[in-house]
Amino acid sequence: MAAGSSPVLRSDCTAGGELGGGRGAAGAALTGLSLSCRAQEPLPEPRARSWVSGGARRARGAELRALVESMRDLHKSSVLGSKHGSLMSWRPQYRSSKFRNVYGKVASREHCFDGIPITKNVHDNHFCAVNARFLAIVTESAGGGSFLVIPLEQTGRIEPNYPKVCGHQGNVLDIKWNPFIENIIASCSEDTSVRIWEIPEGGLKRNMTEAVLELYGHSRRVGLVEWHPTTNNILFSAGYDYKVLIWNLDIGEPVKMIDCHTDVILCMSFNTDGSLLATSCKDKKLRVVEPRSGRVLQEASCKNHRVNRVVFLGSTKRLLTTGVSRWNTRQIALWDQEDLSMPLIEEEIDGLSGLLFPFYDADTHMLYLAGKGDGNIRYYEIGSEKPYLSYLMEFRSPAPQKGLGVMPKHGLDVSACEVFRFYKLVTLKGLIEPISMIVPRRSETYQEDIYPMTPGTEPALTPDEWLSGVNRDPILMSLKEGYKKTSKIVFKAPVREKRGVVVNGIDLLENVPPRTENELLRMFFRQQDEIRRLKDELSQKDIRIRQLQLELKNLRNSPKNN
């Protein structure tokens, strides 16, 4: 620098220009800090310095100092505003949650189930059910429906000739484990039947074709089965005849029927004590039903939100539905179960076309959304006040999922702080992947704050008590000592006499009703052919009768008889 020359302040105000371009309070504050630190730095003297008057330099310096002071004031106001929740705050506002850092952990390949011919049926179900002992998966098969039942410890590659449950004459559409008896599973099929199976203690050693109980009551295929959450041996089934049948398995007969629906029932969900049943239907209506009387308590016509799935959110008296908006985007909606006139909130998720499966954990108040056909699982925390839904994080995977099974709470690994576990069906690979949702904790002790008392494996009611109108919350259990099977409930199939109806030497109970619409059409045409044949045979017999009558008349009028 030349002797006697004063330092020239940096007068580049591009940061201020960016501020005017819309960076907001955050940009202004950060720019003010950087500019205030750099404002007094001398610049090296340029080679060819143009002459500037002293008055101009002083004016430019005053303007720059005023700009720096204004930026400092703006920075102070933004920091102060952040403390008081001002809209000018540049600091992000976070909601405190112990589940904010929950992450998904995929099991290693040797702990997955490989080589499984997962069904290619397009029915919108999970095709998978899991409990603390067994994993059941609906498989692709010819000549009837079947599903695998695999002990959880038997991971790795499953042999192609592994024993199956294969008693249905049509495709299996849904399977559910009994929540109180771990080796009892219910299945429903296109053959219009619901069947109850008893799995041996060590798993299947050979194909199982005989069910302990066969339930016939629907006139068309059965798409859904659900066990009552607090009562033993009460099973609900929904068919394509638009009816929901309530079965008492102690007697093996339907005891109630809900016939308020006008189209195919897509989903069923119970509240905590099983006193209410929520259903979504293809007629674009959401219903809350009193199951014993079949009375509709609340009904919503979802014009802007086409409902596919519904789930009760524990004891919060709220419902969550997933569906499609009028713009064909995937959407969720939150409802008050006592007033379905308008949803509390509606939120669009994305523009994908696959079905959204909702899963709710009442112990942690976490909601999981898994898309059919994609590999992502989003999770939220449900609150009692607005905005009700707080987004936490998203588990991403490149492998698309066909369905998901969910492990009951008593089957989780509490030592690893596992709060949820999915069993993901990857059809393209023939693979079942366990995905554990884990709360990161440093301590290895039991975390009571994330494992409250949870519904156990003991029923709170008998079928007769529930049918008489009694409601009772589920019996709770602690997971602190780990899961120990204490229930000694044994399923006893009712002994029923075979009430056969014999027509033309054919036992009608031995002839299975049509399982699909194509089979119904084939049976219809066969019956038409049979009717045509019988009509021809009858007309021939009429002709023969008239001939015999004429012969008899001729004999009577003959001279010999006179």
From TrEMBL:
TM annotation in the entry: none
Q: Give coiled-coil spans as residue ranges.
A: 531-558
Q: Name one Pfam family in it.
A: DUF1899
Q: Which SUPFAM superfamilies match?
A: WD40 repeat-like (SSF50978)
Write out the GO cellular component annotations: focal adhesion
Key words, A-Z? Actin-binding, Coiled coil, Repeat, WD repeat
The WD repeat units are at 165-207, 215-257, 258-299
The UniProt GO MF terms for this protein read: actin filament binding; talin binding; vinculin binding
BP terms from Gene Ontology = focal adhesion assembly; negative regulation of cell-substrate adhesion; negative regulation of establishment of protein localization; negative regulation of stress fiber assembly; positive regulation of establishment of protein localization; regulation of cellular response to stress; regulation of glomerular filtration
Top-level taxon in the UniProt lineage: Eukaryota
Task: Say if the entry is tagged with keyword Repeat.
Answer: yes
Classification via InterPro entries: Coronin (IPR015505), DUF1899 (IPR015048), WD40/YVTN_repeat-like_dom_sf (IPR015943), WD40_repeat_CS (IPR019775), WD40_repeat_dom_sf (IPR036322), WD40_rpt (IPR001680)
User: Which parts of the sequence belong to the DUF1899 domain?
Assistant: 92-156
Family, per entry: Belongs to the WD repeat coronin family.
Name of the molecule in the record: Coronin
